[in-house]
Design brief:
Distance between the termini of chain B: 40 Å
Radius of gyration of chain B: 13 Å
Structural class of chain B: mainly beta
Order of helices and strands of chain B: EEEEEEEEEEE
Strand content of chain A: over 45%
Number of strands of chain A: 11
Oligomer: heterodimer
Number of helices of chain B: 0
Shape of chain B: globular
Order of helices and strands of chain A: EEEEEEEEEEE
Number of helices of chain A: 0
Helix content of chain A: under 10%
Structural class of chain A: mainly beta
Largest sheet of chain B: 6 strands, mixed
Distance between the termini of chain A: 32 Å
Number of strands of chain B: 11
Chain lengths: ~110, ~110
């Protein structure tokens, strides 16, 4: 069983809606990640939080707004999305080490923008 | 950034057959992981293997860091092995925590 929990598993939203994806881990990891995966493509990094601070933003549009309220939680706020934003959104966590980080993924949230 | 190439892109196996998946990477790595993505989208850790050889049941992996490649061996394949296998690397330069995925190998095991 995955130790990274994502909710909701499925989300359908209109282009004018505001919604949020949530992620939780209790492994004591201090790095958390959001990835986006389109059909038949590999996951692509969106954001990295280290010690609850945003450390990497891969030039993601501002309609995606991450938030890390504490060391166990990671949110992705969604607003004014486009149909092309429909994808699988994956949350992950890891320890923090410059020697290498093993990443653990949640089951993902399937997002459809209509 | 680091480039990751996987081969073959697609693979169809008869149940019980063996296979080798390859991952080439363009720079030194701090970390290399193999994942299996099931049809429901979940990425399952198979191996953390920046160097050396590891085995877990019917699966084993070898990374030769000096030659910048890793191999994933699947023996006596089963239909439940179907899915996409990704190699993901964390480069030593260009910022840690930036994990880059290869395009994956889509495996179909037929009865």
């Amino acid at each position: 069983d995955t130790e990274v929990t994502q909710t909701p598993k499925h989300l359908v939203m209109g282009m004018t809606n505001k919604k949020s994806l949530k992620c939780e881990q209790h492994m004591g990891h201090r790095a958390m990640y959001w990835y986006k995966q389109k059909a038949k493509k590999p996951p692509e990094l969106m954001f990295v939080y280290s010690y609850e601070k945003l450390s990497i933003n891969e030039s993601v549009p501002s309609r995606f707004s991450p938030e890390c309220p504490n060391s166990s939680l990671l949110n992705l706020h969604l607003h004014a999305l486009q149909p092309e934003d429909s994808a699988l959104y994956l949350c992950a966590s890891s320890q923090i080490s410059t020697l290498g980080n093993t990443i653990y993924f949640g089951e993902g949230s399937w997002l459809t923008v209509v | 950034g680091i480039q990751v190439e996987q081969s073959p892109p697609d693979l169809i196996l008869q149940e019980g057959a063996n296979s080798t998946l390859r991952c080439n990477f363009s720079d030194s790595v701090n970390n290399l992981q193999w994942f299996h993505q099931n049809p429901w989208g979940q990425l399952i850790n198979l191996f953390y293997i920046p160097s050396g050889t590891k085995q877990n049941g019917r699966l084993s992996a070898t990374t030769v860091a000096t030659e910048r490649y890793s191999l994933l061996y699947i023996s006596s394949s089963q239909t439940t092995d179907s899915g996409v296998y990704f190699c993901a690397v964390e480069g030593r330069s260009g910022g840690y925590q930036k994990v880059t995925f290869g395009i994956g190998t889509k495996l179909q095991v037929i009865p």
